Amino acid sequence: MKTLITGGAGFIGLRLADTLLAQGKEVVVFDIQQATPAIEYLAKRYPGKFYYYETDLVYTIPKVEGITEIYHVAGAIGTKQLINPAFDVLYINIAMMRNILNIYGNSIRKIVFTSTAEVYTGQLVALPTDEKVNIGWDDPYNPRWAYAQAKFFCELLVRNFKGSKHTPKWSIARLSNVYGEGMQQKYVVKAFIERIKAGEHPLKVGSALDTRPFTFVTDTVAGLISMMESDKANGEIINIGNPVEVTIAELAGLILEAMGKNRHDVLYDHIGQVERRLPSVAKADVLLDWQPKVKIEDGIKRTVDWYESI
């Protein structure tokens, strides 16, 4: 019995793989990256328990025997950073999801798909936002929403997949602003740390009064594992996030303080993104007995310490 993690060399996937291996699981990772030092470390630490395949899941899905459950974490990112053009974001995410289901859907016990709270932010929604709100976009043709649209379409693929011989159980996790040690993309936490280390003073903080529910990576991983292991999560969409709003200005102050700087050395600038994001995690609490445990102050300190150590 093996667990497959797609995107397992990435930020969340790598922490998930390490956690499952420590629990005694046999783990297979598919990722487009060449094996990183962290991946090589896992291979040496867990010989005979860890298998790594460098592959582009849009074109090639290795067929590995014995896989019984899948965490589909891989994805093409394309939010504010415009890391990928909108067409690529849509095509890559949907193609990977379709391919994974077609190859493994007839045999696996369950799949947990990591979607995003971005699906909520294309329109006005109640705060805190639960999983029952209607999904829509005030401007569906705006490339800004390509990532959210791709993730939502993948949710539909998971919900509607019917295998010819067997249909797996599924759960969908909508994640919110995950941060922590080992972040690879330059999201706001990592970006602030790097800019402070580079000597930016004062730190320019865009959209300073906007709020986000920053969720530490260990809490996120614990939520994903609970979703896989709990039958109560079968057929459910569940927010895995932090029900505490933190302004971008407060975040900047916490990072400055953790790095030994004056936490008030910031220059505010309004950019005009989504002003507030706040998930309800009541469903996760009821079904999974899950609540985030790491406070933002502690998570930022751990993250800063990790980046300064490297």
Could you explain how this protein is built, in words?
This protein is an alpha/beta fold. It has helices spanning 11-22, 37-45, 86-104, 146-160, 188-197, 217-229, 248-258, 282-288, 296-309; strands spanning 2-6, 26-31, 50-54, 67-72, 110-116, 169-175, 178-179, 203-206, 211-212, 215-216, 236-240, 246-247, 266-269. Strands 3-2-1-4-5-6-11 form a seven-stranded parallel β-sheet, with helices on both faces. Strands 7-10 form a two-stranded parallel ribbon. Strands 8-13 form a two-stranded parallel sheet. The model has no long low-confidence stretch (mean pLDDT 93).
Largest sheet geometry? 7 strands, parallel
Strand order within the widest beta sheet: 3-2-1-4-5-6-11
Task: State the end-to-end CA separation.
Answer: 36 Å
Helix content: 25-40%
Which segments are poorly predicted (pLDDT under 50) over 5 or more consecutive residues?
Answer: none
Radius of gyration: 19 Å
Topology:
Blueprint: E1 2-6, H1 11-22, E2 26-31, H2 37-45, E3 50-54, E4 67-72, H3 86-104, E5 110-116, H4 146-160, E6 169-175, E7 178-179, H5 188-197, E8 203-206, E9 211-212, E10 215-216, H6 217-229, E11 236-240, E12 246-247, H7 248-258, E13 266-269, H8 282-288, H9 296-309
Parallel strand pairs: 1-2, 1-4, 2-3, 4-5, 5-6, 6-11, 7-10, 8-13
Antiparallel strand pairs: 9-12
Helix pairs in contact: 1-6, 3-4, 5-7, 7-9
Features:
alpha/beta, 310 residues, seven-stranded parallel beta sheet, 9 helices
